[in-house]
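Q&A FORM
Asked by: J.P.
Topic: structure of Deferrochelatase

PROVIDED:
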Amino acid sequence: MTDTSSPESPENTEAPGLSRRRLLGTAGAAGAAGLALGAVGGAGVAAAVNSDGEGPAALTSVGATEVMFHVKHQAGITTPLQSRGHLIAFDLAPGAGRKEATALLRRWSHVAKQLMAGRSLAGDDTEVARDAGPSSLTLTFGFGRTFFDRTGLTAQRPMELDPLPDFSSDHLDPRRSNGDLWVQIGADDALVAFHALRAVQKEAGEAARVRWQMNGFNRSPGATASPMTTRNLMGQVDGTGNPKPSEPDFDKRIFVPESGRPAGQEWMAGGSYAVVRRIRMLLDDWEKLPRGDQEAVIGRRKKDGAPLTGGDEFTEPDLAKAGPDGQLVIAADAHSRISAPEQNGGAAMLRRPFSYHDGISADGTPDAGLLFICWQADPLRGFVPVQRKLDRGDALSRFIRHEASGLFAVPGGPGEGEYVGQRLLEG
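REPLIED BY: S.T.
REPLY: Here is the structure written out as tokens.
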């Protein structure tokens, strides 16, 4: 049932106790100060109870961090990497169309706004995250190519949603690829993320059915002595070359421009396109390589992510540098060379992945790797040219396998009083 109650309505108030709302209220100045502490490692942790032994203690910085729902660009795109993630795709149920999709996006938007603010849901809330704050929770919503067919909105479908080309390294499972609707959930607490996942699944009701779901993780905030780029399951520092919001062309590369869209596609202004790939890492083979060989495959030192040509993680690699033997220090097929923007006509995308581990496969090897998510204003200028080049000669290719794929149009953030996708569904 659609929840139309206000956050301040009686249904959303609770008796005194250790509720999410009450915890948020106790965070106060300590929680606000904790945001800065969390940004540099979060070494301090609040006691479980107050010094007098009664009542809830203030939230730690991790729990108190809130990401806004009503923003120019949807949350979960430029939000710092979270420690827990769920990706879930839905297909509209047989007979469901634009009307049902509109009601569903209204429900999902209400759930997202409430939970991202750390509020409990009215009615049959599972209370899985009852004792936690928002914990950087984000919910991000996108539309797949087939959504527009199902809702009679094909005239509003952007050409950027044209199917991705086939790549020779693809071993794609169609049952775990694509979908009418896509939801990305991220949080810095596993229970908060799971709570949001269950809420999204329940609110789908009879309107949509789960097509696939993938669960991921990253390093927890405060786990390192100082903030650093995350590592993937190969042990490599992963994400050094990401474009940065401070760069003058960042918005142009990552977000759809506010003007100049074809008629009927103005709804994507301020949005972005997400390419989602489930990339299995052949860890048994990778881990047999000596460290030096692993570094040669990537073109960077494993210890600190610095290029093999010297410096630190953020030193620009010298792609022309040769060693005493006359050979390139960063090999011609090194992953970092082939994926570098300057090697791809300036093509760039914002990579925001999660690692995953789904146990052991029937052949006895780890079913583990990367839930690769990249964001760009146009996937034909971002993801596609880079992946084509990697597909032709990346040394890393023999250690990975692309097993699922999806492309989704993620509209701009909802304004006050709006739900996600309203400009498309009611435009």
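FOLLOW-UP: The mean pLDDT is 87.
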